Amino acid sequence: MDQHQATVATDDETTGLIDVEQAEAAIVEHYPRLVRLAYLILPPGIGRTRRVLAAHALAQRALPRNRGYGTGHPDPHPDVELPWQRGTKGPGADTGYAYVRLRVLRLALRAARQRPWWQRPPALPQVFGLRLFPRSGGADELALEKALSELSGPGRAAYVLLELEQLDEHETRALLRAAGVADARDAVDEAESVPDPAGSRDESLLESAEFDPCSLQARPTDLMRRRQHLRAVLVAVVALVVCGTLLGMPGRGWGPSGAAAPSYARNPASERALDPDRLTRAAPDAWRTASRADFSSWPARGDRVRDTALLRRALAVWARPGGSVRVSATMGTQSGPPSGPPQLLFAGEVDQLTVVLLYDGLRVARYAEARAGRAVALDFARLDAADAGTSTALVLSRTDGNVRYLTAPWVRHAWVRDLLHPAMAPRALRRTGDGVTDPVRTVPRLRPCRGWPALQFGSRLVADLGELAPARLTYGTPGAGVRDVAGRAARVSWARTGCRLAMMRARGVRSVNAWRFAAQALPEAGGHAAWLCTRADTWRGTGSKVLAQFQPWDTRRGKAGAIAASADNSPACGPREPRVLAGVLWKARSGHWYLLAAGSRQVTGIVATGGVRGRSYGRGLTLPAKAGARADLRARLANGDRMGSLR
Questions:
Q1: What angle do CA 637, 641, 646 make, to 5 degrees?
Q2: I need a surface site. Which of 154, 208, 437, 446 has the fewest CB within 10 A?
């Protein structure tokens, strides 16, 4: 588990911010200079027209997407300082210009490396029917162009920064390293090998019109070839119209398929999958004798299970949804047609909607229509390898912040319980004879910690995460120790963990387990704290989410604990690696800071290095620290192996 090391610290010292408006102002003010910079760094071999368009595209893409960045964080990539601002004169002294210049430099170097990218036109901007290129220069400009074409991308960038931006060697190397150049010194040496052109006494040759992509000449492209391409497009359109007309003729048409798109193939196996008379239906009591309890043993329920026209529309829209159909799928779920006749789970009227639930062994498809086929929605969720604990309910409708569920046939009693108030008694949830529940209030997205309703089916607890199937909640040691959320300790732990479920929406979550892996006494008689690891596993197996939480006992009831570390796609806190190590910086009431760390039962010692140094011979570690200190944690396990902290 060495790859899951974590740095345990608080936020770094705050740096200045460059917001989107400041970056936009810098681009607008210095746009010709930025485009010229990109044009000179791009490889000349791609052609002058594509090079001009690409230079404009890179300059426009330099505008950041987020609201603001620190000067130590020019983009979402590794942190970079801007040392060239100090003492620099001209445009480079502007922080906004220095920021967008770095982004243009990085984008141009990346584009110069990815040569296959130039086989297609740049995304922005586009000019059709014209060739655009700068005005031609004299013999000196041509000689310089030839010399630059023989340099590498970093070498051209270094030459442009030295000659055009008037940076010294130190500033140039620093800027190249910030842009991702591995060996900036070699790039500067390569640039200095270019012989000095005659040029002008007043300005560099790089300032001439030969290298100005904003002052352009326009000429037409190949007119004969354009005319031939236009004729070919017209012939293809006529052929498509004729084929579509033949497919829609009487006797071979598509049938009453509502919002479905036109048929694209007539395959016997595909036609059988779309035949409502071939739908699979489980016997009403199949779940009592089935070898496993999952969705395949659910009987067909609802007041319209015999409505052939409705089922035909649902199957047709599943196979080929039209442009008016709203299609959604959980992460990692394919939305293609079924490979064979699916199983019917439900068909009926729910909250002024007509809903059909179909299951093909891998996915559940929910078809919902309003007003006889208008306003159609099609939702998919991957639910393979389900068991009795994870196939307890499916969502039928979401209306005005309320959810109705279809419960499994083996569910005898249903309640609604608030996760954040463990001492509060659950309220009974009424259901119809078909297993359709009364509306259940969903968690408000803006203020989720006001309350978190969960469904309790017998001893099992499930929570709605905005998908077709609610996620099962469990508690205990990963592996054999996982059990249902029952008992005071489990409910209290989930009361301070429930708010973190908002971080696990839209991930295709199958189950979420909370595990209290350690408890620790706080320094200066500060009481005690619990360490919890929360792991969300998905239906597809990958894409797990792991959170390590630090929960002092004096935290207000229901308030979520602090997140000490998080990781995606990590085996930590799971059956494959039922162990974890995490740490936080904690401030005592006296104002002193401490590094606190704890590990699971297999940990026999913890070592801290970096900004805080020390060790312990046990599962807990407490060391004096300074505010903002950073530390690396390593643990020794009982079997002699070493483990890094969660990351």
A1: 70
A2: 446
Is residue 555 within 8 A of residue 572, CB to CB? The reply is no
- Over the range 631-641, which residues count as b (16 or more CB within 10 Å of their CB) and which as e? bbbbbbbeeee
Is residue 252 predicted with pLDDT exceeding 70? no
Would you call 62 helix, strand, or coil by DSSP?
coil
Given a cut of 60, whether residue 245 has pLDDT beyond it is no
Residue 157's closest CA among 182, 140, 122, 181?
181
Name the amino acid, one letter, at 593: W
Pairing of strands 471-475, 509-521: parallel
The strand pairing partners of 260, in sequence order, are: 321
- Quick: pLDDT tens for 394-415: 999 998 889 999 999 999 999 9
Give the C-alpha separation, 542 to 506, whole Å.
14
* Residue 90 pLDDT grade (very low, low, confident, very high; cuts 50, 70, 90): low
Mean pLDDT of the 199-210 span: 66
User: What number is the average pLDDT over the span 436-442?
Assistant: 95
Residue pair 401/442 in contact (Cβ under 8 Å)? The answer is: yes
3-state secondary structure of 424: coil
Task: Answer yes or no: are the C-beta atoms of 310 and 256 closer than 8 Å.
Answer: no
Q: pLDDT, tens digit, for every residue of 40-52?
A: 888 887 777 788 8
Q: Residue 531 and residue 564: Cα distance in Å, rounded?
A: 9
Contact 646, 5 (CB under 8 A): no
Residue of 111, 92, 112, 89 whose CA lies nearest to 102: 92
Q: Supply 215's token pair.
A: 């002052």
User: Sign (positive/negative) of CA torsion 481, 484, 489, 494?
Assistant: positive
| Cβ–Cβ < 8 Å for 397, 351 | yes
Q: How big, in percent rounded to 5, are the helix, strand and coil portions of the chain?
A: 30, 30, 40
3-state secondary structure 74-90: CCCCCCCCCHHHCCCCH
The residue among 623, 585, 582 whose CA lies nearest residue 603 is 582
- Strand positions, DSSP E, 480-610: 483-484, 509-521, 528-538, 545-552, 562-568, 581-587, 593-599, 603-610
Residue percentage of the chain with pLDDT more than 70: 79
Q: Is residue 626 within 8 Å of residue 13, measured between CB atoms?
A: no
The pair of three-digit structure tokens given for residue 33, joined into one six-digit string = 């200079």
**Residue 15: pLDDT over 50:** no
pLDDT exceeds cutoff 60 at 8? no
Helices (H) and strands (E) in the chain, counts: 13, 30
Contacts of 362 (CB under 8 A, 6+ apart): 382, 383, 384
Q: What is the pLDDT of residues 502-551, one digit of tens each?
A: 999 889 999 999 999 999 999 999 999 999 999 999 999 999 999 999 99
Residues 6+ apart with CB under 8 A from 384: 361, 362, 363, 539
The pLDDT value given to residue 598:
97
DSSP H stretches of helix in 213-360? 223-247, 268-273, 286-289, 308-319
As to burial, measured by CB atoms within 10 angstroms (0-12 exposed, 13-18 middle, 19+ buried), residue 60 is middle
